[in-house]
Amino acid sequence: MIEMTLLLHIAAGFTALGAAGIALGTTKGATWHRRAGQVYVLAMLAVTLTTFVLVAKRPNLFLLVIGIFSFYLVFTGWRAALLREGQPQWIDHLAGVAMTLTGAALLGLGALGLAGAGGAQPVILLVFGSIGLTMALSDWRDWRAGPVTGKARISRHLTRMVAGTVATITAAMVVNLNFLPDLVTWLGPTALITPLIFWWNARILRHAASA
């Protein structure tokens, strides 16, 4: 059972990474981009579900964290593509509640870890908790301000999908590159790719302002 679930988990992860590469490399809104995005979301759902099964059999806090975190990013990115009118529905608020609670829990565990043994793990929890909580709260802030449409919606879609891919790459590095320090495998992809996300977003919103 565990072996089969692990094989499905790995296969879904590779499928997600491949689909993400196709989506990023094709024209936005084109057929191949949409199809690759759909495959990516389904593959990430499979990754998340198999993560829950693996964690139920072999408890692993960090595996559970990355599973919830990465799927939240992908789910909200997918919803941003669907909600052209920019009006959230109950399922979007439910996802926000789940990520808010998860982010708060991660921050609490990280703080307790720093107060105790210290080391890299509490820092990792604090970083991912801060990112998740910030994104969930920013969703509600933006929705309260009004519908998220136009370039702002595209920016949200891009940010969340790429961030979800970063989380998937992180999981692959954590599992396969365990000879590297924890901070490198867990935070390296985020540190390297986040500046690119900011640059891409600035470019999108700058074009919107000049249009």
Topology overview:
Layout (H helix, E strand, L loop, with lengths): L1 H24 L5 H27 L3 H22 L7 H26 L4 H26 L4 H27 L5 H29 L1
Helix pairs in contact: 1-2, 1-6, 2-3, 3-4, 3-6, 4-5, 5-7, 6-7
Précis, in short:
This protein has 211 residues and is mainly alpha-helical. The protein contains seven helices and no strands.
Order of helices and strands: HHHHHHH
* Major sheet description: none
Mean pLDDT: 82
What is the straight-line distance between the termini?
A: 55 Å
**Using DSSP, what is the number of strands?**
0
If helices are DSSP runs of H or I spanning 4 or more residues, what is the number of helices?
Answer: 7
Strand content: under 5%
Shape: globular
Give descriptors for this structure:
about 210 residues, mainly alpha, 7 helices
Describe the structure.
The structure is a single chain. It contains seven helices and no strands. The termini are far apart. The chain is an all-alpha fold and 211 residues long. It has a domain at 60-86 and 141-210.
